[in-house]
Amino acid sequence: MTGPVPELAERATACANRLLEADHVLLASHIDADGLTSAAIAAQALERADIPFETVFKKQLDEDAIAAIADTAYETVLFTDFGSGQLDVIGEYEDAGKLTPIIADHHQPADRETEYHLNPLLFGIDGASELSGAGASYVLARALADAQDGGAAAAADGGTLEAADETTARADNRDLAALAIVGAVGDMQASGGELHGANAGIVEEGVEAGVLETGTDLALYGKQTRPLPKLLEYATDVRIPGISSDEAGALSFLEDLDLELQRDGAWRRWAELTSEEKQTVASALVKRAVSRGVPASKIDQLVGTSYVLCEEPVGTELRDASEFSTLLNATARYERADVGLGVCLGDRGEALEQARTLLRSHRRNLSEGIDLVTREGVTTEEHVQWFHAGDRIRETIVGIVAGMAMGNAGISRSKPIIAFAEKNDEECKVSARGTHSLVGQGLDLSHVMSEASQAVGGDGGGHDVAAGATVPSGHEDEFVARADDIVADQLS
Ligand SMILES: [Mn+2]
């Protein structure tokens, strides 16, 4: 078989065969929505292939983390959603015979190769927008199922993937496509309202396997769980005057429509509306946006492709790829990878309950953080703007806060924002956020974070639109000056 991403098929098969040779495997993954889904996909694939494994999560795969991994009794280590960027360090342990790395990642590789390295960037596929860590893990999972049965499943149905039969989907791991899409959405790969390239191939497999449904829908966050007025009030990607961030406005907009807004004393949610009702709201929303002068290019963004996990109950965050990824991120930011992984693996009891509690407190922290930044303002340099939160915003959420504060009073959307927060007594976490429009003009925050942090004795990286670094405390001003210069070059 060629798998969901033909360019990666051969390498994926080599990685799968190597895994099948192992007596046991250490699965190491990044802690975020993409990392958690990566681990859940890999864990299920390993389990189904009868390969014993243990899972560990790391916030950052730094030298200490790699040393700890090399120190375990495991010889075969499967890294998901990280590993490529740390190949220089991992390689030293490989050379010393301490471990054999198998890597399913999509980040920029360090200057070093290894045999079992599955990364879209090595095969001409964009790792920032076309395939996530979960996507790479999914490609590996598909190859693992295939290597295990020697291609029997593919031969049985003539190599086509038309049967949406659940048993088949599970046997060839296609049911895991839903998690891969949650990971991709969590890594913000759905640019322009939909997933592209290799991700689109995974979506197709998920639809065929009966675990995903796609459709054109309102591109607002919270279609499953938010009460209708809140869905509109909190939607700020496309700002509609009189509705966005306007509680009374959103409510009166809805009340003017001929709609049943409540049922059994509770607000209805978007997912419960009939298609005609959705149509009514969507057209009125577009009409309002037009009449208030929202540009056509922005109005287009009100509609996008929705990714629905159709086996999950209606009205739960698990049914919507975007809400699911947010729930996972909430567990990750508070170092509860065990909870997030539990949810991904199907725990709908205690893990789901804990995840929801974490999400509620996460939202409270975010809104307090955004208030703080907006109240105190940012310092504007020539090409970047920045703030230092000290210990008043957790370093694990300071990047999201920065991104969400962009566009608020005094915080521009035309310059990238850099946020500092205390990590410990010696180190600061730096997070940077841009916009897709700035990326279109040449901004690459991954490069900015990596260069500027290394210049002050730290380290960093990430994606063009969102990246992070850790720097020694006391070097913030120097970091900002460096970053300002690099951004100037990129945008010139
Ligand atoms: Mn990722």
UniProtKB/TrEMBL annotation:
<dbReference type="InterPro" id="IPR001667">
    <property type="entry name" value="DDH_dom"/>
</dbReference>
<dbReference type="InterPro" id="IPR003156">
    <property type="entry name" value="DHHA1_dom"/>
</dbReference>
<dbReference type="Pfam" id="PF02272">
    <property type="entry name" value="DHHA1"/>
</dbReference>
<feature type="domain" description="DHH-CID">
    <location>
        <begin position="220"/>
        <end position="303"/>
    </location>
</feature>
<dbReference type="InterPro" id="IPR038763">
    <property type="entry name" value="DHH_sf"/>
</dbReference>
<feature type="domain" description="DHHA1">
    <location>
        <begin position="392"/>
        <end position="488"/>
    </location>
</feature>
<dbReference type="InterPro" id="IPR048515">
    <property type="entry name" value="DHH_CID"/>
</dbReference>
<dbReference type="Pfam" id="PF01368">
    <property type="entry name" value="DHH"/>
</dbReference>
<dbReference type="GO" id="GO:0003676">
    <property type="term" value="F:nucleic acid binding"/>
</dbReference>
<dbReference type="Pfam" id="PF21763">
    <property type="entry name" value="DHH_CID"/>
</dbReference>
<feature type="domain" description="DDH">
    <location>
        <begin position="25"/>
        <end position="140"/>
    </location>
</feature>
<dbReference type="InterPro" id="IPR051673">
    <property type="entry name" value="SSDNA_exonuclease_RecJ"/>
</dbReference>
<dbReference type="GO" id="GO:0004527">
    <property type="term" value="F:exonuclease activity"/>
</dbReference>
<protein>
    <submittedName>
        <fullName>DHH family phosphoesterase</fullName>
    </submittedName>
</protein>
